[in-house]
Inverse folding.
């Protein structure tokens, strides 16, 4: 691998530009991002009261899909089956409470931000937050005199066990396009036609010469090659990977964690 460049839209969404990397390696990183980075969700729910229109199973399923993120001490958390205790302790048991009741005549929204962490001196964890959704994920609405009371336990898991533990909403990669202009001395009409044919505006004119910018943004629509002076091919070892985190980690953290897991896998191979 010669170069990796991170292009962030925001800390939780962006792309990685890879130069001189084998397809098998970048596909391994993609698979690890989807299925092997540990994350945290409510896996066991004690439902004390639910008189909403949503039945218990549907409500529990919806809550179980909400990702949580550690503020500190994530490295010390383990599931009960990995702990030395017998019936659970503060180091392996993390509980969240949701107590919500509507005493008004208006519909009352219930968000993931309404969860309250039970007192725990070892960890600080919270539901994921989003820039455009300050209250977090909408769970349901409460009508007049409706209420929810429940207690849920955090469980650490990976995406290959259940999709709710996958840290990414979406990740994919594509080869970087290689666009060549065979003849720069195109007529004004041909130049304008090529420029207008590209939906992502890769072509521009400078001093009467047709030029290209940001090849990695090419969506490979092939509109430009209707002009015989444009040649479209691909860089066989250059790739653009798009990553959209579910809020558990930033894309920088996801990339670092995926490399760490890949490194451990490679080192475990017997020669």
């Amino acid at each position: 691998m010669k170069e990796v460049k991170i292009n962030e839209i925001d800390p939780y969404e962006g792309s990685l530009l890879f130069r001189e990397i084998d397809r098998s390696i970048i596909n391994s990183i993609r698979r690890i991002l989807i299925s092997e980075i540990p994350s945290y969700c409510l896996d066991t729910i004690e439902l004390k009261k639910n008189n909403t229109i949503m039945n218990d199973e549907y409500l529990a399923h919806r809550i179980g899909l909400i990702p949580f993120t550690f503020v500190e001490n994530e490295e010390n958390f383990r599931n009960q089956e990995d702990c030395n205790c017998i019936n659970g302790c503060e180091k392996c048991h993390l509980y969240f409470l949701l107590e919500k009741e509507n005493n008004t005549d208006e519909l009352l929204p219930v968000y993931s931000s309404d969860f309250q962490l039970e007192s725990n001196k070892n960890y600080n964890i919270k539901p994921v937050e989003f820039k455009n959704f300050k209250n977090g994920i909408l769970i349901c609405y409460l009508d007049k005199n409706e209420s929810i009371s429940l207690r849920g336990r955090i469980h650490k898991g990976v995406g290959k066990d259940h999709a709710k533990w996958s840290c990414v909403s979406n990740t994919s990669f594509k080869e970087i396009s290689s666009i060549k202009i065979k003849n720069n001395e195109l007529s004004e009409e041909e130049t304008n036609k090529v420029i207008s044919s590209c939906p992502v505006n890769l072509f521009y004119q400078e001093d009467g010469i047709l030029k290209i910018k940001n090849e990695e943004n090419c969506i490979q629509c092939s509109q430009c090659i209707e002009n015989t002076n444009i040649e479209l091919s691909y860089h066989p070892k250059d790739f653009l990977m798009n990553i959209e985190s579910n809020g558990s980690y930033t894309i920088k953290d996801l990339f670092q964690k995926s490399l760490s897991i890949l490194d451990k896998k490679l080192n475990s191979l017997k020669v």
Remarks:
- Residues 3-35+169-245+249-260 form a domain with the Gyrase A; domain 2 fold (CATH 3.30.1360.10).
- The chain is about 20% helix and 40% strand.
